[in-house]
Amino acid sequence: MTTPAEFYDRHRELLDRAIDAAAARDYWSAYPESPSRSVYGEQAAPAGKQAFQALLGREFPIEVPGARTTVSSELSPYGIELDVRYPQGDPAALIAAARAATPQWRALEPQERAGVAAEILQRLNARIYELAHAVQHTCGQAFVMAFQAGGAHAQDRGLEAVAVALAETTRIPATASGSKPQRGGDPLRLEKTSTAVGRGVALVIGCNTFPTWNSYPGLFASLVTGNPVIVKPHPGAVLPLAITVQIARDVLTEAGLDPNLVTLAVEQRGEGIAATLATHPEVRIIDFTGSSEFGSWLEANARQAVVYTEKAGLNTVIVDSTDDYKGLLRNLAFSLSLYSGQMCTTPQNIFLPGTGIATDLGPKSPAEFGADLGAALDKLLGDPQRAAGTLGEIVNDGVRARIAEAGDLPGVLRSALPMVIRAAPSDEKTFTREWFGPISFLITTTSTAHSLELFRDTVRQHGALTALVHSTSPEVLADAREAALDAGVHLSENLTGGVFVNQTAAFSDLHGTGANPAATASLSDAAFVTGRFFTLQSRRHTS
Amino acid sequence: MTTPAEFYDRHRELLDRAIDAAAARDYWSAYPESPSRSVYGEQAAPAGKQAFQALLGREFPIEVPGARTTVSSELSPYGIELDVRYPQGDPAALIAAARAATPQWRALEPQERAGVAAEILQRLNARIYELAHAVQHTCGQAFVMAFQAGGAHAQDRGLEAVAVALAETTRIPATASGSKPQRGGDPLRLEKTSTAVGRGVALVIGCNTFPTWNSYPGLFASLVTGNPVIVKPHPGAVLPLAITVQIARDVLTEAGLDPNLVTLAVEQRGEGIAATLATHPEVRIIDFTGSSEFGSWLEANARQAVVYTEKAGLNTVIVDSTDDYKGLLRNLAFSLSLYSGQMCTTPQNIFLPGTGIATDLGPKSPAEFGADLGAALDKLLGDPQRAAGTLGEIVNDGVRARIAEAGDLPGVLRSALPMVIRAAPSDEKTFTREWFGPISFLITTTSTAHSLELFRDTVRQHGALTALVHSTSPEVLADAREAALDAGVHLSENLTGGVFVNQTAAFSDLHGTGANPAATASLSDAAFVTGRFFTLQSRRHTS
Predict the structure, then answer these.
(1) With an 8 Å Cβ cutoff, are A492 and B539 in contact?
(2) Superfamily assignment of B316-493 in CATH?
(3) 0.95 exceeded by the pTM?
(4) For A122-150, what is the mean pLDDT?
(5) Of B160, B504, B508, nearest to B346 (Cα)?
């Protein structure tokens, strides 16, 4: 038994550092992203692999309220047999268990809740290899990417949410006292107590491609602000979140708390348990990552809850000019290829003027740019091993169907993955659809001003999570920044090196803005946590 | 011409102090609440009265986009002839003007916007007497109360919102730079810019009873977070907000900004312009104070906007025991009487056990308590001048109708205003209605535990803005605090002196919680402002 206060003491320094980093927004990371032996030790890799393999073909060891059957719904994109069976809870029992666990959680100080959360994150980090295998074999990410995005970066995003939640729940001091001067009398002295109280049962709905990275912010933000959390994974990517919930429950139990503060809610594919849970009157907070269709449905129908969604959009690149043409191509080729374009941040629409672009290697027409981008992709992916490490595998049939559909479009410049398709502004109906997967459009405009206009209009209407501009002109960059503010999207400028538009770093880059239809929240600013709790005061006279 | 930066420099010290005070939550006030000559000077009172009188019987001097006619809709509860005519704008023109004014407002630093807001507040304070007369003669508040609640306290609440908005829009630094270490290479150096961008056109819908106090938080929070604001007063209380908008427009013009960042939207009674504006796709933020019916309608129908409502509820007093019976009665009598109970914070339901309460003057049965409360009210209101200064006037026919209806109820203990009516738990259907006005119920329960149970259940279901407990027992106080956390309402304990349950102080007490149906927001915590803007980043390499 370790009390929540002891967990806080154990992690206090880390939490203080994380709060500072989240405020400063310079670069900081708590969990090393390198799967190197020199970082995690000699035994970590084989032990993690063994732990992962020991989970396969069995019932996953976790208690779930109301469970009477088990469910097995995962298929590895790498083709290995998973056959992990998870106890399937009953929605009413899950919610009742969450509510029953709430009072003792509310009674803790925010610091104590953050201490428990930090301990959960530390244990997730200790099992990072096991988690990486679980992510790889449910999402189709190459191992190193699964280790980084699904392991260290997800844990950093989780800690960022803990830090922001702790900062916001302690912003109004727990106790305050003050005197109001009275004309012709003694001052009125009052003592005030402020308590951050969670909104209610929280539901986190995971996605197929980034089950941990996209779920940890909501999970930890809701938890630290005083709410019990029901974690509902995508049927295709249960294992990484099952391990997560298992660890959370272990820590809660060790802290003398009810483990049902964090529960797992699985389903057979197509059962629709997410909709059932999301519209339950006692579910008051929802975090969702996934399709625009279900995200918009949640926003419209889960009216009893605050709903944080990350959906999809038209990630855009505006190419105007560059002083590092090769760097531009190399950088963009990697962004299009990474995880076969199955990131919510992968560029889809690349705008460039029909008159071509100025580069350090001379002017380039759209046709030349298309050919050069194709060559850069070929070069990046020419080595089969590097290609496998970059592309990973296609995650599901939905992506495969879109790839097939895109292959039938006119203007295919590159039919291998990632596909590149030539388009004109008149093809707006095509390129304003979201083509989640390794499918991008090279769209020829009349000018960079026209590109920016299309960028602004399409993103305002359809949303985007990322935008990238390449220009050597300070005026064009200034215009692009204004257009990005209008469109409500974060902007990267002239990325030609080791930073990629589809990657954001916790404690430094926000992810999503809330300002366009692609997302209603930003990971993780204050707005992402302040809706999850209320501050209740009591006051009394003191002498 | 004074630039926004110059206004910020002028008010920087005040703003820094206000940010500190809003964080510390001890007692602080920027605007003196005493209408004394020694505070505001010899000439302020007569000059303010003259300025007010000069407004009567004329067209109010203000420009309104799209105005072609004027509207006069106010009746003084004190019976004087007002006949102020206001230009009536067109909803589409108001919204178009607001949007056109936005880009230059977005381009300012948050500090510059806060500087402009602080200047507006300073000029409101300089016209506090004029505003007090305007509040008195539209709301029916006695002059001193109008001066305090409608003048100084409203200005303090406005400044509090400015402070919280400035703190939140600058929480993520405008620029940050950081290096990410690279294994076997130079670190990746990035520079990042963060910009707080307003959500869009904001609408503030004022109420009849506290047009300034309840409107200033939303008005200033939206403005400082980068949004243009359309102010739509209640038809019965236009003048205080017309003066406010006039001052805001003067300051904006002097700062070289488009005055249409703040506009006035009046209507003939019953025209429904609030609903038209509130459901316009370009209106993205709504602040509303008023009836539960229209507030709930807004929450359900203004889906394109974030909606902050303050509606109505069942403000509750739980009487268990006291060591200052006379103080309890005096304090409660004043709370029931102030502004004839026409505060959203006036106690409605008073629970006490049928077995009576222990006091320093011996045990008191419910019948004795009722008689003693009546006597305390008679004593407070026995002197006609003091009665007039406390009660003010009935604001409108709605309150008059409820008073008439309450008079026909069984169990009327005191038929003079404020009315006190005896009730039992079986009368729940009656006392769980909201009786806004000078109508309270004395409800006999089986025990204090029963009182707390009723408190918890009725407030969870119907909402409340205030709660008060009287007890000498630490256990009962602890139970009451838990019940208040369950009910989601702020709690006052054992108020027997000069602090009243129906008054909250800016920079110290929050008003409303969001945690029960009476309100979706709290004046003014971080959650009240973080939904009004987005933080957009751009990033680029630095060498």
Answers:
(1) yes
(2) Aldehyde Dehydrogenase; Chain A, domain 2 (3.40.309.10)
(3) yes
(4) 98
(5) B504
